[in-house]
Predict the 3D structure of the following.
Amino acid sequence: MSLQSSGRQQREARGANARAEGQQQQQEEERREVTLFREYLRIRTVHPEPDYDSAIAFLERVAIDLDLPLKKYELEPSLIAVVITWEGSNPALRSVLLNSHTDVVPAFQEHWQYDPFEAVKDAEGNIYGRGAQDMKSVGIQYVEAIRRLRDEGKRFPRTLHLLFVPDEEVGGFRGMSLFVKSPEFKALNVGFVLDEGLANPTDAYTVFYGERSCWWVTVKCTGHPGHGSRFITNTAAEKLQKIINAFLGFREKEKARLDCSACMTLGDVTTVNLTMVHGGVQYNVVPAELAASFDIRVPPAVDLQAFEQQLESWCREAGDGVTYEFAQKGMDQSVTSTSESDPWWGAFSAVCRDMNLDVKTEIFPAATDSRYLREIGLPAIGFSPMNRTPILLHDHNEFVSEAVFLRGIDVYAGILPALASVPAVPAEQ
Ligand SMILES: CSCC[C@H](NC=O)C(=O)O
Ligand SMILES: [Zn+2]
Ligand SMILES: [Zn+2]
């Protein structure tokens, strides 16, 4: 038997130590907000088989504890949206929707310092778990901010709805996409939405007012087949080479544009990634068909018609028999107003200023459920209040510190009253 303990044993030992420390600290002083957050992290709502039943049971307990009504809406068998509502003093006004998704992406245990579903808190107070940033923290921060405001006896004119949706991490097609089209959603009478954002490693907080369109495209190249020992003309591979060069050449240019400007962010440029290649039969057979799939993200400022013409011309120039097909083609480019004269943004930004939060507005680089809400004309802001935190969503060792998590509750306890007190906007008068 080796004297050296395996990586797994070391991890387990570290986990046990941290757990022991965590438990000791918890017995002494852990705040209930943190305990609730860690409890939520331990629920395995992880794809491909998320345990939504346990998440719903957890939310039912949260609602009872908050003394607020909870409603469940079945979007598809076993896919349920949960809404917890704090009614405003003037429920005729449009409501504020606080959205979060309950599902999380898979975690590869062997790359984690601690078990991704144990919610270990280390000696520095960092809480590790899949969903720590994306976005179980946010769901609990909404809950705890509301609890605090209610405990203080506050009440605001506008209704606040806490929405917990499934399926976001696999596109929201069976989640938010269905929910926004339902009469039950319409009945929520939503006027403004807060949804997820990203951590920011600096002192600043990033706030997202739009997102890039997601295009997933497969380019199919056909050509002459034949024996692998010959110079066959007009092959699928030569066409594929031109396609890859054109797409990745454009990628280089966009990357250079991002790298050479300090004020540009990922959301301002187009990214192109070759994510799959398909085709071929055996070593000595020149294939009649090869295909490449690309994940392309296009900023809202780009003319989508012109961009598609560009793709079309790259395919034409690659030769005959080159076609493309979309698996995903986001066409909505709505962005939410960040004009100080906009009543919602005005309220949000004013309260951030009052709290001395340094806010940076950006376009979200990937896709969130906000796109379904913006598409039906609702203003939506992506905001996960995590500054001084590395961006670790979907990454190994996802964590947020206890201090940042708790500060985020203070931040919402400032923002929610401002949003729920926005005076009647013109459409409501
Ligand atoms: C367009 S469906 C995919 C949605 C996914 N959202 C989070 O990572 C993304 O790839 O951005
Ligand atoms: Zn998310
Ligand atoms: Zn995610």
The chain has a mean pLDDT of 95. The longest strand covers residues 213-222. Residues 140 and 320 are 55 Å apart (CA to CA).
